[in-house]
Each structure stands twice: as C-alpha cells, then as structure tokens.
Amino acid sequence: MPEPLVVPTPTSVTGALPDGLLTAFAGYEDALATNDLAALDAWFAPGENTLRGDAAGLLVGHDAISGFRGARSARSGTVARGIRSLHVRVIDPRHAVIVSVNAPDAGGAGLLTQLWSLSAAGDWQVEVAQVAGPPAAINPTVWRLVGNPLMAAAASGTLAGETIAVKDLYDIIGFTVGAGNPAYLREASPATETAAAVAALLGAGASVRGIAQTDEFAYSIAGDNEHYGTPPNVRVPGGLPGGSSSGPAAAVALGQASIGLATDTAGSIRVPASYQGLWGLRSTHGAVDRAGLLPLAPSFDTVGWLTRTPGVLRAAAAASLDPSQQTSAAQADAPTRFAVSSALVFACDDDVQDVFVAGLDRLTRAGLLPAPDLVDVGDLAEALRIFRAIQMAEAWKSNGDWVTAHPGTLGAAVAGRFEIASRTDPAAEAEARIALAAARERLDAVLDGRILLLPSASSTAPSRHANPAAIDATRTATLTLTSPAGIGGYPALSVPLFESRGKPVGLCLVGPRHTDLALIDIGAKLAAGR
Amino acid sequence: MPEPLVVPTPTSVTGALPDGLLTAFAGYEDALATNDLAALDAWFAPGENTLRGDAAGLLVGHDAISGFRGARSARSGTVARGIRSLHVRVIDPRHAVIVSVNAPDAGGAGLLTQLWSLSAAGDWQVEVAQVAGPPAAINPTVWRLVGNPLMAAAASGTLAGETIAVKDLYDIIGFTVGAGNPAYLREASPATETAAAVAALLGAGASVRGIAQTDEFAYSIAGDNEHYGTPPNVRVPGGLPGGSSSGPAAAVALGQASIGLATDTAGSIRVPASYQGLWGLRSTHGAVDRAGLLPLAPSFDTVGWLTRTPGVLRAAAAASLDPSQQTSAAQADAPTRFAVSSALVFACDDDVQDVFVAGLDRLTRAGLLPAPDLVDVGDLAEALRIFRAIQMAEAWKSNGDWVTAHPGTLGAAVAGRFEIASRTDPAAEAEARIALAAARERLDAVLDGRILLLPSASSTAPSRHANPAAIDATRTATLTLTSPAGIGGYPALSVPLFESRGKPVGLCLVGPRHTDLALIDIGAKLAAGR
Question: Which of B40, B151, B280, B372 is the Cys-Cys partner for B208 at CB 3.0 to 4.6 Å?
C-alpha cells in the first residue's frame, strides 16, 4: 500500500492558500521520489507553453519536458529528498508561485521555483519550473582532473590569468595520460616531462585548470565518449558537443577555462568549435612541437586551441608556434585572395549551405571580404579515401598493439574504426602515400595562395539521441570538409560567425601553410565587422 | 550619457503583454550589468516576502537580498551578459512570470525565473527570483584538486563506491601537500608515499575524490581560510562552515564526497560536524596511524572522519583503526553509563544550552539514554590553559621554522596564533606537561568509564560576517568544550541530533580511550530512535 502523502507545512504564505495547492505540491514531490513518469507528465501543464529549466538548459513545451524525463534512467531519475523550507506566494485563487528548498539524501541542497495554476478541469498543474540541484564536485563528462590550479603558470606573459583545459593526450609532469579510455589510464605511468605545447602556454603566463576529456584516442568527431559520457553543448542543449576535443571545447564554452589545448587530425578542433560557437585553430602541420603528445596519425596530427575570443586564440598561437616560422615570409604575407569550392558547400546539410551562402554574401556586400574565386578542388570522395587510408594505417601503427592487447575496452564506434584500420594493406598504404603527395600538390596549385572558405562542419550539432547511422553519415560529410586541410598540412580556423535557427555554424578559413596568425587576424576582422 | 535601454524581443508570450513589463525586465538587466545597487534594490519588491534564491541558498525578505548584494564586491557583482531567449507568461495585467536564458560574456549559460508584479504605485517589481549561473569547474573554497577519481580504490571492500575528500595535510603519492597556504604549496615536493590513513580507506574500496581545503596548518576552528575563501555551510546559508577541516566537511555536506578524511587536534572535526549537521569522529589519540600526516600538535593530533551517515562513518573507522585495538577489551565493552558537566554546558550560548538540555531530556524520557550522572570536571579555564600551552609549544616546533622563513604569508588570525606560540617559554611548557598529565589522570577518575555528553560546539555556526572579536570569543568557548577530549586522548563523536532555529547543533559523546566504534553504535541508536 502506498504511504499517505505528507503535506508539508509552509514556512510562509502570502494571500489565501487555495484548496488543493499544497496537496498538489506534495503529490509532485512524491512522483519525483518514485520517478513516476506518468504522474510527472500529469503534474506539468499540457501544451507548448510549459517551461522547465535547470543547469542543462531550458525545455519549452510539455513534450520536450516529458522526453527529457523519459531519457533519464529510472535510477538517476529517482530523487529522494526532504523539504527544508516552503514559501507560497498566492497570486489569485487560480495561480501561485511556490519556492521550496529541499535536502536530497545524497547531500547538498536543492531549490525549486514553480508557477502553479488551476486548470479548467480543476487540477493544479506546473506551468513554469526552475530546478537547481546540488553542484557536483566535477563534471566527469568534461574533466578527468581539475585543480585550483592543477599546474601554476611558469612565468608571467601575454597569457597571464588565462586557464587551460588540456586534452587528455598531452603529458603533464607527474600526471598520467588517459586518452579517453579507463583501461589505458589504469596502465599509464606519470609523465616525467610536460608536453611542449603545454609548456609553451605555461611559459606565457597561463595556468592549467585541468585535464579534459577526449574521444578515445582522438578517433572520433562526435564527442560522445562511451566511458565518461557526453559533455554538454552550451549553445545547443541536447546537442552533441563535437569531438574529439569534446572536453576542452565544453570547458571553454562553459567558461570553466579560457583556452582549450586540443588536437586536430581530421577536424577534432574545427568540429566542436563549429558545433559550440567557439574560435578554434588547427595549426599548420608541424608548426607547433608535438613532443609529449600521444599520436593518432602523425602525418595529419596538429596542435591547436579553442577559445571564446580571437585575442586569446592569437596569444595562445603566438606563444606556441615555432618562432622561426612566425617571422617567415609566409607568416608575414597575409593572403588577400579567397576561394570557395561549390563541391565542398554542396557536401553540407541544406541549412548549413543556406547560412554559408547568405553569410558570405553579407560579408562581401559589407566590404569585409573580396568576392571569393570559385575553385575546383577535384574529386572529394577520392581525396577523403586517400586521407582515410593513411589515417587508418597510422592510427593502427600508433595504437594497434594496445588495442589488440585490450579486447572489449573500446566504445563501439571507435572499436569499429580500429577494426577496419587493423586490416590496412601495406600495398594500399604505399599507393595512398603516393596519391596523397599528388593530391597535396594539386591542392597547392588550385588554391594558389588563396584562403579557402567553407563551413567548418557539414551540419549543426546533431542530437545526442541521433542514431549511429545518422551520426556516421554526418561524420563522412564533415570529413569531406575537413580532410583538405589535413592533406595540405594547412592551418584552418573556425570562426563562430553564423547561426541556423540558434545553432552555431563556423566559417572555416583554410590558409596556406604558416599563415596561422594571419588567419586569426582576418577572422577577427570579419567577426568585428559583422 | 547612459546608453538607451535595449528592450529584448520575447521568444514567447502567453496572454496580453502588460505595458512596461519588458522595459522593467531590461532595466533590471541593465542595473545588474552596472552593479547599480540602488537600482537593484528598487527593482526588488519591498518587504519581508520577497524571495531570491540561487545555488548558495534562498534569501527571504528585501533586506536580506539587499545585504547580499552589498556584500558582493563591485567587480564580482557586475554581470556582463546578453539575453539568449525570453519567455513571458502573463498571469493577469498585474502579474507575470518571466523566464530568461542569458549568455554571460565569461562563458556558459544562465537561467533566471522571475515573478514580476505591478505595485500600487504603478512600478513593476520582482517578488520572486531564482537565479542560476554557469557551473564552475571547481569550488576553490572546498577543493584544491578534484578528480574522477583523483585516485582509484586499491581493492574492493566495505567502502566500495564511497568517495573521500582528503584534508590537504595528508600525503597522496605524486601529489603535494598545501596545508591551506599557497606559499607552502609552492615549495612542497610530491609525496613519495600515501599516508597510512588514506591508504586504509583506499584499501577498503573507497576512491579519492579530491584534496580538500583546510584552515592554514589546521590552526583554526573557523573554516575561513584567507587565501582560498570560506566554504559554504549547506545547512546555514551565510554561516561559517567550521574548521579546520572546512573543505572535507563542506564536500561531504554538499554530497561531493561521502567521507571527509580529516584531523582533530582541538575540535577540527567536531566543530564543522556540529555547524553543518554531519557525523564526525575524532578517534582515540594514537589509534590510527598518523604516518604521512603533517603534524600540528602531535600530543593531541588525531585522524578522523566526517560523513552524512553513521554507517559510512563506522566502516571508515573500522577500516582505519589499529586492528589490535579494535578487538581489545576497551573496544569490546561499550560503556553503559553517561555523564554531564554543567560547567561545560554553561560555557555554551543560551540557545545551545536550551537545545542540549531539552534534547537530553527527550532522549532519556524516550528510554534511549539512562539519566546521565552530573560530574565535576574541575577548573575548565585551567584545563584550557594547559591544553593551549602544549598545543602552542608543539605547533611552533612543527611549523616555527617555516613560519619564520615566510613572513607575511599567513592569514591574520593564524599568524597571530603562531606569533603567541613563538614566545613559548620552555620552563612554562615543562610545567604545563606536568599539569597535563595530572589533568588527564583527574579526568580519567572523574569520568570513570562513563561517556561524557556535551554540545559539540558552544554555538551554532557564526555568521561569515561576524567580527574577529566575536569569532575569537566563540573560539575560546568552543575550545573549552573540545579540550577535555584532547587532554584525555579520548575519542569524541559528534552526532547531528539537535537544531536551534534550523541551525544544527551536534551532540558530542566523549568516551574512554578505544571506544571509537562503540560510540558510533550508541550515536546511531540515539539518531535512529529520536
């Protein structure tokens, strides 16, 4: 037999307490305690105007709220808590706001503000709710370790006061590298030196806030690590954050760090930057020292950064790029001509195409950009095939021994990729290397010193609940966009310039090798003049 | 000239939008952006019924809200943010609820729910507000380092699934000890071994969640570290957390860890346990190995734990106590007689005296406790003098060299204590050691195998804004209560059993040496039967 409802005594009431209101409040708490989804659905007012907000964002409409509840597992949905105080503000006999402080059995305090209204049928229902639970010590989807700081700055400099979220692929002295996989982490030894890219930022005055999550071995662009969970996307509640630099990107988007130190082999910086509305630079291949970085595919692996502002991105890049290359002729001569490939644009979802075309048109009409030249970048499917062949061969060389020795420890999507990679044929790899060199020469010739403009990803952030096939299709389309920079070893900047129905879309600038800083300056001008 | 107000366009509206409402909303955001305290005061409705809640708790009444704003510095008060979406639910021409999602310049997203009402004078004012800002990566008042986990369990056992907040005085292999002082931390070397008390918990299946803050060198019972800030008190918003084990206690109260591994020399576990409504055990002096623990005053230093439940406390103690002592006659024979000293009760604030006397009366009338015997514990001022003399002498021996070499690096209150300690006279110390031995013998005789019952602290949690003189007076009164356990080397358990106007007051059980587990069992029965 269910226990009878305990109707709490209000701490304060203004106005005349309507009949049934407190019983309804108690009924809602009871439904929450038992995770009674049908009852919770009934306590929320039907229709498109019901609101429920919490730390993860605002849900609009009864269906969205109901869907969110359904997605929570029975266990995490159940909330055992007592009411510590209860304040009722009666507006009229049919409306009241209730503010309650609750004490979860698991510790901390929660706060709940609800607008209750009496329906035509005589039922009290929640029209608006804001829910706050106790803060967690750490968000494990974003971070593996966090400190205040984890490592202090090594000197003062242009990055003084900035905080770094270090992707869990870089060595930090005294700490282990986890590479997004718990089994790998367990066997890792503490690093005896700090990676060059981390040291460069520390030397310019930044401190390390923590070690941030990555897709396993950086071999994904989704950002949905099966072991540690999917980080939030601040700009697209319910959307994937993008990966593999999912943790650094989310940390920066959340304001929990100001620099995400990341890597980009096939889009791992550009994709989360695009999905989350951040600045992201994949540096020229080889222009930043990769010592102390766990490799995925060394022919394409690059160091790079995610930030909220172009100023911090530029300072991070300037502190990290090989000084001899910063003062080279290439770095000094900023490109002044731009190129667009319609084949690359057509690889995108319709909404991204629309936003990109309209956005470029706006920028050129505003005089911020000269009209770009249309270029033919050749057979994109063939370019992607070559890129993937080399990436797979090198990924297997980097990680195959470990993967073989640890069956069953990888998430399904990454395991599948390694499984295909394990079948790399040496002859096919040799052929692909020759094709790669040719493709690179062809791209150099086609772009001819111009900056290639394209969307940073083929879509806005997909839903976290998208099926694997849909995510894989998005992956292939996005890799079509990201692989040219990999083939050319070019720097690529994602500028948070566009939006499709509130969801960010990055404008990607792919420049000649060693134009890293010039790209940021150009991107900053576009963003400022927008 | 101030910029004109930008009145945002609502994302959705139900009902007829009243005149002036959105302008009022924009005016409030503008006042927040400029931290215009007078304007913010005016936007909130006057009187006792206005509510404002956030992660730190619920403020009731216009004065409390105004006081909170005044306490924020101009810099931290200023909030630069844009509005991302805005939903208006009009209840009637004089009432509306507005829910807005904002985008702070510093990253992340904020959520705000407000009940607006039109005053008799025709002004729109906020009657109720719930505010949520972006979550921080780490709460630096509670933690110095946090991990997922920071260190994994070493085995399975009775503490499987439990998480430890380790006070920043214990060695953890590979990590430094900071002792609550940034200068000390900077010079510290990573530990080469893990402290015995940490290893015992890891060996029983718990993992380390992180390294938690402490008052400097554990030499305080306030919990107001000047360098890292004052942790929250979940049960008393605006109240001190108690110290020196402030971080472990707050971590456990917040639900961010389930075991606070702490130390108690003169109340550093019992005081935060009492202030925050937690279970806290100071173990029998010497009964838990202190290897790898930074000493304060070794004659009194003890290992202990803070938890939310007696079950976890008992498991932590059982895993940590020297096994030879757990099976001794003393541990096996639980005391059945109890004692009360009216002098110790009179040392407390009136409200604590009332709560304690009424609480004991309730427990005895319920048959949970036999009527305690009244005992005369002697001259409390003299006992405290002896305790402090030895504590000061040993604190200076432990830390004097470091303190002397680092002038100006300690917070004022702790610096003052070390300054007095530095003047310890060897002859006076020798005299005090003789007096201490005599006092201990006397206490043993007076208590005669009974459990001494007393309040765990002389007051409920003082306000964070109390002046130093008031905090010092509370400190002296509380040390009068805590020093007998130090003098006798007794275990002391704080049970979260009482409340004074919603603020917790611990019932302290001081038992004969090596009755640690028996005390927890007795405390658990009292709590269950309450």
Answer: B151
